[in-house]
Amino acid sequence: MRVASRMEAVWSWGTSQCGACVVHVDGKSVKACSMLAAQAEGTEVTTIEGLSPDASHPLQKAWIAEQVPQCGYCQSGQIMSAVELLSRNPHPTDRDINTAMAGNICRCNTYVRIRAAIKQASRALLQAGRGGASA
Ligand code: FES
Question: Could you list the pLDDT tens digit for every one of the 135 residues in the chain?
């Protein structure tokens, strides 16, 4: 049983289809299900647990404020992909978001709230003088 308030890196299909397992390898989003552990040797791997110790990353706060998750299964991968998006593009348009997040599928159809949370985090990061969203 999963605790509703806890979010963790997950394993899903193992076929690089849904993006639920996205982690960062040297700052880039990677579908962990398609990467061998040996390929990670010498790299820096960041999972959702490593994004912030207390869920205080602006994207995590925006996710909570927008009440994005439904079942929650895809959400750690969604947030990790969003972090990379904002690190490359601090003020994305809807189209930018849709393109960047296309590899992350949400079976609960939370896409509207995902876009709202990314925009909210973008505004928060820009107001804080942080153009990117790295951990
Ligand atoms: S919240 Fe259920 S799959 Fe995305």
Answer: 233 345 667 766 677 889 999 999 999 999 999 999 899 999 999 999 998 888 899 999 999 999 999 999 999 999 999 999 999 999 999 999 999 999 999 999 999 999 999 999 999 999 988 766 555
Q: CATH number of the domain that 43 lies in?
A: 1.10.150.120
Query: Ligand 1 center to residue 18 CA distance, Å?
Result: 11
Structural domain count, the chain: 1
Of the candidates 78, 45, 41, the residue with the CA atom closest to the CA atom of residue 62: 78
Domain of 123, in residue numbers: 22-127
User: Would you say residue 1 lies in a domain?
Assistant: no
The pTM score is 0.87
Residue labelled with tokens 């207390």: 54
Q: Is the CB of 71 inside a 6 Å radius of any atom of ligand 1? A: yes
Q: Which of 12, 68, 75 to mutate to test the pocket of ligand 1 (most atoms within 8 A of CB)?
A: 75
Q: How far is residue 115's CA from residue 100's CA, in Å, rounded to a whole number?
A: 11
* 29 pocket-lining for ligand 1 (C-beta < 6 Å): no
